[in-house]
Write a structure and sequence with these properties.
Length: about 300
């Protein structure tokens, strides 16, 4: 209704009604309503509880240990590439079992690089490993190929065909004679110096992942396959590899060697997680029963899940 056209008595009544409505609105929206006071009390109680709770401590687990192990590694140069890049190796542990890990030999197969980075800390964190095994890690035997993303080295030679195996075949891409390349010569000398009980080499394969062995390495390959789920493939089922590191180490020298084939193009972090327990199990061999048994049990539990 319009108050300005009403009689005086009606006009006063109109304003009284308006005033009552205004007071009602103020009472409905008070300055400090009960629900707001209750919420404030809850917030204060929560703040007091958070202040009284124990503070979280900085993590000192695997990440901290990985950093500490990485900082303590002493790298030595065991050779040089065609273009002068260093071939670096480091050793960790001081046990009687000797294992050589080679992070790569083909420049366009880099899926094992994270495994190479993470292996020292994982090894050091395994109970009894340092006392039982001396683990030597050759970071990369083909740094020129890695820099150029090519299979061969800077001379275009496939280093994994340049070793003095009985099946060596002189070719331009394999080298005119065994050990004609400085990188393969450095690996050759390192193997003869260390005389390892096991060699593991990281590779990658198109559209497949598997573990392969040469020489007396079948038992370790089976263990690796059982833990990782990677199929075991016999060398006879793969294309011939004349002059390969596996042929020379496994058949000429009679040493066990495992060729770990990651799936080409797979995520290196995922590849490491898939094979971490299996790598540790073959590195330890039978020298540390407790951790190996635990790794095998964990692998069975994962398979069940």
């Amino acid at each position: 209704m319009q108050c300005d056209i009403l009689p005086p008595m009606r006009w006063r009544r109109c304003w009284l009604l308006a005033l009552a409505a205004l007071v009602g609105c103020v009472q409905f929206h008070p300055r400090n309503p009960p629900w707001l006071q209750q919420q404030a009390a809850k917030d204060a109680a929560a703040a007091d509880a958070a202040a009284a709770a124990p503070k979280a401590q900085p993590a000192t687990g695997d990440d901290g240990k990985a950093d500490a192990v990485a900082a303590s590694l002493v790298w030595r140069v065991v050779g040089q590439s065609v273009q002068g890049r260093p071939l670096r190796a480091t050793s960790i542990g001081y046990g009687p079992r000797r294992v050589l890990w080679i992070g790569g030999i083909h420049g366009d197969e880099r899926e094992g690089r994270i495994a190479t980075q993470q292996l020292p800390a994982a090894f050091a964190a395994t109970p009894g490993a340092m006392q039982a095994v001396t683990l030597t890690i050759l970071e990369d035997s083909n740094p020129d190929g890695a820099a150029q993303n090519t299979r061969g080295n800077a001379n275009g030679v496939d280093l994994n065909r340049n070793f003095p195996a009985v099946n060596f075949k002189p070719q331009r891409m394999f080298g005119i004679k065994p050990l004609s390349q400085p990188e393969s010569s450095a690996v050759h000398d390192l193997v003869l110096q260390l005389k390892p009980d096991l060699i593991v080499v990281a590779h990658s394969w198109h559209d497949a992942r598997f573990i392969n062995f040469d020489g007396p390495g079948e038992a370790m390959a089976q263990r690796f396959s059982r833990i990782s789920g990677y199929p075991l493939r016999e060398s006879e089922d793969i294309a011939p590899t004349p002059g390969s590191l596996g042929s020379w180490v496994g058949h000429t020298l009679g040493m066990p060697i495992l060729t770990l084939e990651y799936r080409r193009g797979s995520d290196p972090y995922t590849a490491w997680q898939q094979t971490r327990m299996a790598i540790l199990a073959v590195v330890l061999g039978d020298s540390v029963q407790g951790p190996v048994t635990a790794l095998l049990r964990a692998a069975r539990c994962q398979a069940i899940v």
